[in-house]
Amino acid sequence: MTLSHRKILVIVCTIIVLLSVLTITSDCILLYSYSSLGNNILSENGKITIAYIVTAFVLVGGVICCAVLFFVRGAMLLRLQSLTANVKRITDMPDISARLPLSEHQDELNELAGSINSMLESLENAEVGMRESEERYRMLFERAPDAIIVIGLEGDESGVIVAANQAAADLHGYSLDELCGMLIHDVNTAETNKIADDLIATIANGEWVTAEIWHHKKDGTQFPIEIHAGLIKFGGKKYILGFDRDITLRKITEETYQIHLEQINKLNEELSRKAIDLAAVNNELETFNYSVSHDMRGPLTRISGYCQLLLDDDSALDPVVREYITRIYESEIWLNEMIDALLQLARITRAEIVSGTVNLSAIAEATLKELSLESPDRSVKTLIEPDIFVAGDSRLLKMVMINLLNNAWKYTSGKNDVLIEFGVDRTSFGPVYYVRDNGAGFDMKDAGNIFRVFTRTHDPSQFAGTGIGLATVQRIIFRHGGRIWAKGETGISATFFFTLP
Prior knowledge:
With about 500 residues, the chain is α+β, with helices and mostly antiparallel strands. It folds into four domains: about 5-90; about 145-245, 2-Layer Sandwich (Beta-Lactamase), CATH 3.30.450; about 255-350; about 355-500, Heat Shock Protein 90, CATH 3.30.565.10. Helices cover about 60% and strands about 15% of the residues. It has helices at about 5-35, 40-90, 110-145, 165-170, 175-180, 185, 190-205, 250-310, 320-350, 360-375, 395-410, 470-480, and strands at about 145-150, 160-165, 210-215, 220-235, 235-245, 355-360, 380-385, 390-395, 420-425, 430-435, 485-490, 495-500. The strands form three sheets. Strands 2-1-5-4-3 form a five-stranded antiparallel β-sheet, sandwiched between helices. It has a five-stranded mixed β-sheet with strand order 7-9-10-12-11. It is elongated and about 205 Å long.
C-alpha cells in the first residue's frame, strides 16, 4: 500500500466515523428529550430510530472493512505474494546472481526487496571470493613442486590416500587416479612401516612431524623422502596433510661428502706424519749444517793460515808451487763463503717473520748508491719508481732487494750504457714488482733452474758468486706467501718478477 492510498483510506474512514458519531449523538439527545416529556409515542419512535442508526452503523462498518480489505489485498497482499514467489524462485535457482524486481513505490515492501537484493549481492560477492580462494589453493595444491598427500584417519578412510597432487603421483610413478585410494602403507617400505604407526599417532595428537623415511615407486625402486606432516580437519573429519620432498640428491651429496671427509682426514693424518718427519729431517739437517760449518771452519782456517805463511815467504817456494798454494788459498776462501751462504740460507728458513710496512724504493736507492761508491769508475743509469710500499719483514725483504740488485750490477759489468730498473706493474691480480737490467741476460731454457742452490748459468770465471743468492730470494718470497719468476734473453736483458700478498 502506497502513501497516497493510506492517506485516502484514513480520510474516508475518519469522515464516516465522525458522521456516524454526530448522527448517533443527535438522535440520543432527541430521544432523551422526548422521554423526559413522557411522550410514549415519541419514545417508541426513538427506539425504532436507534435501531435504524445501529443497523446503519453496522452496514457502514462492513462497507469500511470491505474497502480496507480491498485496499490491503490490492496494495499489499498481491505484492507480498509476488515477492514471496520471486524469493522462492531465486532460492530454487543454483545461481544467486538474480535480483528481485523493485517497484516505483517507496514503501516497506520495496525496502524489503532492496534489502533482499543487497543480501543476495553480498552472498554473490562472498561466493565469488570463496571460488577465487578455492581456485588459488587448488592451483597451489596441483602445481606445487613438492608432493602433497592427504591421508584419512577415521572410518573407511583410515590410512587411505584420499587426495594427492600431480607431483606426488610423478614422484611415486603412479597416475593420480592410481595413487588416490591406495593405502599409505602400500607406498612405505618395510622399514618405514615399522615406525609409521607411531608417526601417525603423534600427528593424530595434533603435533606436526618432520622426518626422513623411505617410499616405494611403482616399479619397486626405493627412494628417500623428507616429510612434514600434520593434522587437519575437513567437514568434521580428521586427516593428515603431508608435504613430501625427494632427498635422493641430498643423500648422495651427504654420502659423497662423508667419503671425501674421511679421505681428507686420512690425508691430514698423512700430512701430519710427513710434517713431523719433515720437522725431524730439518732438525737433523740444521744440526748437520752447524756441525759441518763448525767442524770445517777449523781445518779451513788452519789451511788458510799455512797457505798465507808459505805465500809470505818469497825465498822458499818454487813459482809453480806458489801458484798451487795460491789456488788452494783461493779455494779455501770460496769454501768459507759457501759455508757462510749455506748458514745464512738455513737461518732464513727458520727466521720468524715480523710484518711491517717496508719502503722497497728506499732500499733500492740505498743499495745502488752503495754499489756506485764501491765502483766509482762505472757509469750506470738507474730508474727507481718512488714510494713503493709493501707489507712484510723489513730485514728479509732488504735481503731480497740487495741480492737482486747485486745480480743486476754484477751481470752488467761488461756493458756500456747500463740501465738498472726497479718498479711495479699494477695488474688486475695485484701489484707485480720487478728488477730489470740490460746485462748478460740468460737463456729461457734455464729459467726453471736459476733459483736452485749452487746453480750457475754463466761461467764462474767471468762472474763470481756462490750460486745461493737467488735461492735465498726465492725462499724469502715464498715465506711471505708470494711467488717469483724470471724472464731473460741472452746478452740482452734479465728481469726478475715477484709478488707479495
